[in-house]
Amino acid sequence: MSSHTTGSADQRIFIDKQSPAAYQALVQTSEAVRAVAAEAGLDRRLVELVNLRVSQINGCAYCLHVHTRAAVRAGETAQRLGVLAAWRDTEVFTPDERAALALAEATTEPGDAALQETAYDQAREVLTDDQISAVIWVAVTINAFNRVSIMSKHPVRPQ
Q1: What is the pLDDT of residues 62-104, one digit of tens each?
Q2: Which of 5, 60, 73, 74 has the maximum number of C-beta atoms within 10 A of its C-beta?
Q3: How far apart are CA 140 and CA 126, in angstroms?
Q4: How confident is the model at residue 11 (pLDDT cuts 50, 70, 90)?
Q5: d(C-alpha 122, C-alpha 156), whole Å
C-alpha cells in the first residue's frame, strides 16, 4: 500500500518547502553564480535573458514570471523581451548576448553535439573564459530551478 497523502491528481508537493535544506543549497548556489557572473563582467540584463531563454525552452511559467520582472527591473525593454524566443531572427541582441543565448540553449539541450560545438565556438569569439563559465553556470542553475517549479507546479496568479 502506498504511503502518500490522498488528494486530487493535480496536487503537488512543493519540493522547495518539503525539503528546505536541499532548496536552500540551490539558493546558495544561485547566489554564488550571480556573484561569479558579476565578477566576470556579465550585465544583469544578460543574466536575466539567459534565465528567461532557458525558462522558455523548459516551459516554466513560474520562472518566466519571476525573471521577466527581474529583467524589467534590470532595465530590459519590452521589445527585446517580446522577441527573445526568436532572438536569432532579430538584430536587437549584441554579439555577446547572442553568444550567451546560444550557449544557454546548448546547456539546456545538450543532446545535439554539433549545436553545442557551434555555440561554444561562437562564445569563444566574444566572451572571456570567465564569462563562458558564468553563462553555463547561470543556465545550469536556472535549469534546476525550472525543474523545482515545474515538478511542484508553482502557480502564477494574476496581479
Answers
A1: 999 999 999 999 999 999 999 999 999 999 999 999 999 999 9
A2: 60
A3: 21
A4: confident
A5: 35
Q: Give the global pTM.
A: 0.92
Q: In this structure, which amino acid lies at residue 12?
A: R
Alpha-carbon torsion 153, 48, 75, 78, what sign? negative
Rounded CA-CA distance 34/1 in Å is: 45
DSSP 91: S
As to burial, measured by CB atoms within 10 angstroms (0-12 exposed, 13-18 middle, 19+ buried), residue 131 is buried
* Sequence-distant (≥ 6) Cβ neighbours of residue 62 within 8 angstroms: 149, 150, 154, 155, 156
